[in-house]
Amino acid sequence: MEDVLDLYEQPFDPQRPLVCYDEWRRALIGETRTSLPAQPGRRKRVDYEYSRHGVAYLHMAFEPLVGKRNIRVTPQHTHQDFAHCMKWLVDIVHPSAQVIRIVLDNLATHKPAALYETFPPEEARRILRKLELHYTPKHGSWLNMAEIELSVFGRTMKNYIPEENTFRVEAQALANERNASKAKVNWQFRSADARIKLLQLYPSISS
User: Fold this and answer.
1) Spatial separation of the C-alpha atoms in residues 18 and 67, rounded to whole Å
2) CA-to-CA dists, residue 176 to 2, 106, 169, angstroms
3) In the chain, is it the N or the C terminus that has fewer CB atoms within a 10 Å radius of its CB?
4) Dist CA 47 CA 145 (whole Å)
C-alpha cells in the first residue's frame, strides 16, 4: 500500500510517467421501444425493457500528475488484451519514456506472464523492460486512481449504448473533454494517514 502512496507523492517526471491502469466492463444495451422526449412539466420517458448486445471493456490509462487519460476499447478482457495494452503504452502513448510506472490491480490477467503468452519472448522482454509495475494490495483496489476516473465515465456516459463502436466514440469524446480541462483527482490520502487510519492492517511488533 505504501509503495503506491509513495508514488503519488513523487513529482512529475516526463521520462518516468506515472500511469494508473484499470478496466471497466460495460454492458451494451439498446432500447426496445422509442423513448418519449422530455416536455415542459414532464421528464423524458424510457421503457424499462431493454435488449442486450454483449459487452465492451474500457481500458483506462490515467495519468494523475498531468490530468490526462488515454483509453482503449476491446470486446474482451483477456491476458492478450492486457498485453496489447501494455505494448500500446510503451510504443504509442509514451515511446520516448525511459520507464513507465504503472499502478494496477493485482489480478490474474495483470501479470508479466501475459506478455509472454501473447508475444515472442524477445518482444515480451522488450516491453517489460520499459514497465515498472506497482500492484495495489488485495482488497485495496480503491488505491488505484484509475477507479475514480472510471467512476466519472460511469456516471457521465449514456445508459443506453447498443454498439461497441458507438461506445468507443462516446468514451473517447469524454476523454478528450476531460483532457482539455486537465481534470485531476484531488488525492489527499498519504502513507502517514494510512499508518493511523489503517493501523489494523499493519503487522504488530511485539517486544
Assistant:
1) 11
2) 32, 28, 11
3) C
4) 35
